[in-house]
Amino acid sequence: MKLGPVLATTLLIAAGAALTFLPARKGAGRAATTGAAAVARVGLVFDVGGRGDKSFNDAAYAGLLRAEKELGIEISFLEPVGSEDREAALRLFASRGLELVIGVGFIFSSDVDAVAGSYPNVHFAGIDYAPGPAGVPTNVAGLVFREEEGSFLVGAVAGLLSKTHHAGFVGGMNSPLIRKFEVGFAAGVKASCPDCVVHGAYVSASPEGFKDPSKGKALAIAQISVGADIIYHAAGATGHGVFEAAHDAHVMAIGVDADQHDEMPDTVVTSMVKRVDVAVFDTIHAAVNGKFVGGMHVFGVKDGAIDYVHDGPHASRIPDEVKAAVESLKADVVSGKIQVSAE
């Protein structure tokens, strides 16, 4: 029988670090009873910003919940309190012998490598994983995305919608991964509006930049003050501050990772969609069916894993002629005619 929603959190001390732990939930129809087939178990450790960010983490969680529902697995998830807890959280799951342990976010990369080396019989997956000098361990699947392609598409939307010919970008952490978003966005803006200017800013040089809405709002206000009338963020929970600034100034904003229209319906005109949920589900499906494959797995526009919101009511503020122009650019990305640089 499927257990009800988790109503409380339990504070565990793992490897000397405090972790917010939400107990495992058993999947429907596969209760582990005497004589029954063993239930596959999967654990997921959230990135900075955590569950409820309505972006990157929530997309990963959606994939986990889909696997619980459709595959009948038992799921567990942890939200580290601080950076020192990431490795401890991964080790906690690995020590329990789970079929798959997932780290959400590039900051987990070295932690995944370290724990994978200690538990060679456990499978690991790292979302936005960056290989270390020794390469990818055989029991690790690195799930990476061509964010620059999706950012290029929403950049093209921004260039076509801007009346001031000024667009803004707010990044959470100044890092190679987040700079891919900015580079792709700027290229898209220039592709559709050669005269447009892109103003870029970053909240922090650390992961804390993904959970600082007040700083995100301040940076957006600064960009608006120099003429930006549409702002794209790649900043996790910090992005809500960007939306607030855009809303207050009656300018447009662009969401990231998931459809963020409902965060600020009168402000968010589109979002760059990164199907982390699909990557998580597919990796879980492979692992529990004995088809796990280590190494790097790359997802882009051509795979349908990267896109932008351009259909339905959440894209109602994008004129048909803008959609047509961006769809043409998208077709060129898929065919390879346009190669979007990541740096």
Structure description:
With 343 residues, the chain is of the alpha/beta class. The chain has two domains: 10-145 and 276-303, Response regulator (Rossmann fold); 147-273 and 310-335, Response regulator (Rossmann fold, 3-Layer(aba) Sandwich). The chain has nine helices and 14 strands. The chain has helices at 56-71, 86-95, 109-118, 147-161, 176-192, 213-225, 239-249, 276-288, 320-335, and strands at 10-14, 17-25, 41-45, 74-80, 100-104, 123-127, 140-145, 166-173, 197-204, 230-234, 252-257, 268-274, 295-299, 306-308. The strands form two sheets. It has an eight-stranded mixed β-sheet with strand order 1-2-4-3-5-6-7-13, with helices on both faces. A six-stranded mixed β-sheet has the order 9-8-10-11-12-14, with helices on both faces. α1 links the parallel β3 (41-45) and β4. α4 packs antiparallel against α9 (320-335) and α6 runs parallel beside α7. The chain is globular and about 60 Å long. Residues 1-36 have low confidence and may be disordered.
Helix content: 25-40%
Task: List the uncertain runs.
Answer: 1-36
Give me the side-by-side strand order of the main sheet: 1-2-4-3-5-6-7-13
**pLDDT averaged over residues:** 89
Number of helices: 9
Structural class category: alpha/beta
Number of strands: 14
CATH superfamily of the largest domain: Response regulator
* Radius of gyration, CA atoms, in whole angstroms: 20 Å
The shape is: globular
CATH architecture of the largest domain: 3-Layer(aba) Sandwich
Count of folded domains: 2
Summarize the helix and strand pattern as letters: EEEHEHEHEEHEHEHEHEEHEEH
Q: Name the beta content range.
A: 15-25%
Instruction: Please give the CATH class of the largest domain.
Output: Alpha Beta
CATH topology of the largest domain: Rossmann fold
In whole angstroms, how far apart are the ends? 50 Å
Q: How would you name the oligomeric state of the polypeptide chains in this document?
A: single chain
* Major sheet summary line: 8 strands, mixed
